[in-house]
Hints:
The structure is a homodimer. Chain A is 37% helix and 17% strand. By secondary structure, chain A is α/β, with parallel strands linked by helices. The first copy, chain A, has one domain (2-342): Divalent-metal-dependent TIM barrel enzymes (TIM Barrel), CATH 3.20.20. In chain A, the strands form 2 sheets. The first copy, chain A, has an 8-stranded parallel barrel with strand order 1-2-3-4-7-8-9-12, surrounded by 4 helices. In chain A, strands 5-6-11-10 form a 4-stranded antiparallel β-sheet. In chain A, helix 2 packs parallel to helix 4 (79-96), helix 4 runs parallel beside helix 7 (170-191) and helix 10 packs parallel to helix 11 (289-298). The longest helix of chain A is centred in the middle third of the chain and has 22 residues, at 170-191. The A-B interface holds A 17-18, 20-24, 57, 121-124, 279-284, 289-290, 293, 311, 313-314, 324-325, 328-342 and B 17-18, 20-24, 57, 121-124, 279-284, 289-290, 293, 311, 313-314, 324-325, 328-342.
Amino acid sequence: MKLSFRWYGDNDPVKLQNxxxxxxxxxxxxxxxxVPVGDIWPKERIADLKSSVEKEGLSLSVIESLPxxxxxxxxxxxxDQLIENYKExxxxxxxxxxxxxCYNFMPVFDWTRTDLNYVLEDGSExxxxxxxxxxxxxxxxxxxxxxxxDESYTKTEMSSLIRKYRTMTDxxxxxxxxxxxxxxxxxxxECDINLxxxxxxxxxxxxxxxxxxxxxxSYEKLLNINNVKNNGICxxxxxxxxxxxxxxxxxxxTFGDHIHFVHMRNIKRLGNHSFVETGHLSKEGSVDMKExxxxxxxxxxxxxxxxxxxxxIWGETGKAGYGLYDRALGAxxxxxxxxxxxK
Amino acid sequence: MKLSFRWYGDNDPVKLQNxxxxxxxxxxxxxxxxVPVGDIWPKERIADLKSSVEKEGLSLSVIESLPxxxxxxxxxxxxDQLIENYKExxxxxxxxxxxxxCYNFMPVFDWTRTDLNYVLEDGSExxxxxxxxxxxxxxxxxxxxxxxxDESYTKTEMSSLIRKYRTMTDxxxxxxxxxxxxxxxxxxxECDINLxxxxxxxxxxxxxxxxxxxxxxSYEKLLNINNVKNNGICxxxxxxxxxxxxxxxxxxxTFGDHIHFVHMRNIKRLGNHSFVETGHLSKEGSVDMKExxxxxxxxxxxxxxxxxxxxxIWGETGKAGYGLYDRALGAxxxxxxxxxxxK
Lengths: 343, 343
């Protein structure tokens, strides 16, 4: 397994010089953040990103994410041109040597939390999701802003988007994902790129909007679209672990050939679809991290794996979930598990 | 196993508030640093230390170290009073509830290194030991100061001490350790305290002075003095690992009943008795940390274990080997190993 660390580019307060001092850290997960969603990623920009990572003796191993435009998810008329652009971006990524690309198919809202600064007993701060808050909140009628909302939308644009999705069923969203994958997978195969879909976070519908990548059945449907190995999965233990019914090791053993990227994160289920993000250790949360690593060893997983969200500890400030310290603690913990677990 | 962290008291730049945010960190290893060596540790001072640790929700689990006066190691006339004082300190520690006490029997020099700021490839700084530097240096005739020297000695005192030890053989030093243990072990048994001797660091003679806690044979001799379990061992992988002949897992399985404290540290042997301290991961150094944890699980080790020396990373400054960051990375790595390794 290739241990990696997500880096938000030159503006990230966490610098590559710090990341590379984490023991055995050789791989970087990153993206280009200033190209508007739907536009083609220029090859030179990708090459620049790659060389800035390599200048520090690290490898750019995964692109997270190459985002999918809302019009593609909505199945609007403009999607064909947007999908053509997506293919061009994939080709450019392939030409620069990128082999793994992460994306998601969550409408409007990416990851959703109700609190970014929930204080744990030890004084550290973490992300939490209180289901009651979300249930009692209608983003069309209220002016509340949840962390994770895309603030680049105006209130009117956001309301219009949500209204459109509310007319859609899960099946409609599946149709649009199918349309998208049927178009882009042949290009991914040609470019030798594994596309990996990130699960919905949390893995259930919010605000009356469909969400479809949630459970074992979701992955069965995904692979029914096309069983080529490039139709891949980003296996996120923190997202999938929010549903107790998700047997993570079993899912890994079932869909192993399609897993090309792993996010290691722990959450504590609080009941009633609420949860808090914890440190990575199994004993701190609801996810049995050892059993996850064991399953990955059983499928002979050789891909990229990274510690996901960390708490804010030791007074660190920065991008919620993406500080240096607790994620680095997660990295060495994961390395201990990988070394300790016998196949 | 009880994961712990060494803390140098209120003056330590690493604060308890930071230590307790390391996942699963509940135990503190500390000492009283301002009582002159040989004097009795007052009970109130020990109780104060304990309560300052407990105020942060942590436990004071090991005293490292209760130092042994040079006159005891030299077998001088004053040793009897100094040993009586040592017994009183043990009684006071016992009354406050301390169950594990670390000490060493290294003459004059505790741990010895030739460089505290050796720069590794990733830009981190670490401790290293260059045998050629030590071999070509006579602390009596030169004015050089190695890191780790006790600067509280004057040049004349230091020279006098060294001259005395140079007249002693290893057997003489063993006699003095035997005399000391015969006196203090009955008190340790009565107080229910496990005394744990730290190995010599590095585990060979330096500057023509005897050193005796180095190898498997050393521990056989130690337990021949008295086989009571309170005659214990602080098993330091970094010190013992400097000698390739030391089979650490085998030593753990052989002397397991006497191991009450473990230091997890990694070094890279450079040949010719030189070495550099690395991050904790097995793949970074010469010590197979997984095999160490496996052996500890085999003997059903329930005692205290701590990450030892870390590198200086992320621009941290402070006490060489005892920064927060890399030791914390060691702690979560050790936790991953403990969780991952099946018994």
